[in-house]
Design brief:
single chain; 252 residues; mainly alpha; two-stranded antiparallel ribbon; elongated
């Protein structure tokens, strides 16, 4: 009994797997360290076999050693770039949480969370964890993977990405700051006005020591306004997911 291997399919699956692994390492929500590496590896193998027929259309026969090694490096760079673009868009949630923690006075208790790779205070980590959960629950993770699959049509596994793709990093970085300001803006404004009011009260009645009373007041304002922010977080995550897919679709 003779078994024949389709080398084009096998090489396409291997090259697609390199791109997918590099993407899963950096892109949320798959970059979450709480997901076991075994599960990530199994997911990468399953996805590479699923996308291999689409990726194999760009392979004309068996590749030689030099071309195959160059394609591996290329897929590693492409997958890392796509994952970094997604992580940069999703970092708006973390930046918004850092802004709120800064104005609320929570930054004194910041710590590094090794599972989410987040360095921030309570609200930053809570917002990041909630956003990651919403990506899984709302189907955003499937949409991100669908956007990754579409890149195999625009960027064949044997091709190189355009150098001008790096020009998307600066607009994406500006979009990160704009999105974080839009998410945390209302709470930041309320906390800033609270500080101004406490300052005016201190000038009028210095004996009241208004700033000492301001700590529990700002905590109360943050909790009340934070509840409104968490109600709007599903819509924010949906918008960020669309932005991720748009950035991946623009890479060529």
């Amino acid at each position: 009994m003779n078994l024949t291997l389709d080398m084009a399919f096998l090489e396409a699956a291997m090259l697609a797997g390199v791109r997918i692994v590099a993407f899963l390492i950096l892109a949320p929500p798959f970059s979450f360290s709480g997901i076991p590496l075994r599960i990530k590896g199994m997911l990468a193998v399953a996805l590479s076999l699923l996308v291999a027929p689409q990726a194999a259309t760009g392979i004309r026969g068996e590749l030689d050693t030099g071309t195959f090694l160059l394609a591996i490096v290329s897929q590693l760079i492409i997958g890392g770039l796509l994952g970094f673009l997604c992580a940069m868009v999703f970092a708006a949630v973390q930046s918004a949480g850092n802004l709120v923690d800064l104005f609320a006075g929570f930054q004194l208790s910041q710590a590094f969370d090794p599972q989410m790779n987040v360095n921030g205070a309570q609200l930053t980590r809570l917002m990041q964890m909630t956003a990651l959960g919403l990506l899984f629950v709302s189907g955003g993770a499937e949409l991100i993977l669908n956007g990754l699959f579409r890149t195999f049509t625009a960027l064949p596994v044997t091709g190189l990405f355009d150098v001008s793709t790096g020009d998307k990093l600066l607009p994406g970085l500006g979009q990160l700051f704009i999105a974080s300001a839009q998410i945390a803006g209302p709470i930041v404004v309320v906390l800033f006005l609270a500080d101004v009011g406490l300052g005016l009260l201190t000038r009028v009645a210095p004996a009241l020591n208004a700033f000492q009373l301001g700590f529990p007041l700002k905590i109360l304002i943050t909790l009340l306004a934070g509840g409104v922010l968490f109600l709007a977080l599903p819509r924010v995550v949906a918008t960020l997911t669309d932005d991720m897919i748009g950035l991946m679709g623009g890479v060529h």
